[in-house]
Amino acid sequence: MTDFEGLKALVTGGASGIGRATAELLAARGAQVAVLDLDPSSVEKPLRGYRADVTDDTSVREAVAAAVTDLGGLDIVVNNAGIGAQGTVEDNADEEWQRVFDVNVLGMVRTARAALPHLRNSAHAVIVNTCSIAATAGLPQRALYSATKGAVYSLTLAMAADHVREGVRVNCVNPGTVDTPWVGRLLDSAADSAAERTALESRQPTGRLVSAAEVAGAIAYLASPLSGATTGTSLAVDGGMQGL
Length: 244
Ligand code: NAD
Description:
Elements: E1 8-12, H1 17-28, E2 32-37, E3 48-51, H2 57-71, E4 76-79, H3 94-119, E5 125-130, H4 134-137, H5 143-163, E6 168-175, E7 178-179, H6 181-188, H7 193-202, E8 210-211, H8 212-223, E9 234-237
Parallel strand pairs: 1-2, 1-4, 2-3, 4-5, 5-6, 6-9, 7-8
Bound molecules: nicotinamide-adenine-dinucleotide (NAD).
Residues 12-13, 15-19, 37-39, 52-55, 80-83, 103, 107, 130, 132, 175, 177-178, 180-183 line the site of nicotinamide-adenine-dinucleotide.
């Protein structure tokens, strides 16, 4: 199936994890794909890598402009770059709150701002934001991270309303616990990472973590013409976690 033949996509945080799986899936289905990342050195053809820091407006604007020039337009933006944070409201200083909001929320705003003038020229314009079940699930020890994803969720709804009449759809995916290098790093920091992984898996209703490819599949659906009448919605990819 070549759902994305002729379409041009940009994926932030596309050098690792969910972003990488998404970039690879879109490319395999026929899209031309630009990856924006802090470190795009591992990005291989047919993907095109662009160095950008989503906390730096100039770097985002320059990378988006370069990608649009190279691809010859822009139809799909996957706003995915994000970082984690652990703790309660008592654990993180103001500077840490500002740093994580800068990446997880403002990073998506900057990318959307740079991309929207190009998306308005597309007959198939869509933005998919990587949110999280943390936006709505009330997870312990995730106050800061959850607040950033709550903001991403609200931002998705507001952007969908703002841009629907311009022909730009905006949706988000809400992954559960996904087996990516990020989660690998968290497990590695535990005293017994194998035992920690087993414990984490046993807390999943499915008995396993969600794969990055499964999140990529949901993003691809929301990015494809198959979901052409869907905007302002979120799609859970959490192995049933939210139903608990
Ligand atoms: P990851 O660490 O494997 O990949 C994140 C990528 O983002 C990396 O390539 C990194 O270089 C890039 N990045 C980070 N900061 C950046 C910046 N300032 N500018 C540009 N690029 C930057 O993480 P992942 O698990 O694939 O997570 C991707 C997204 O999925 C994040 O938004 C995260 O919040 C969300 N998410 C992850 C999980 C999970 O369990 N892994 C669950 C729910 C949501």
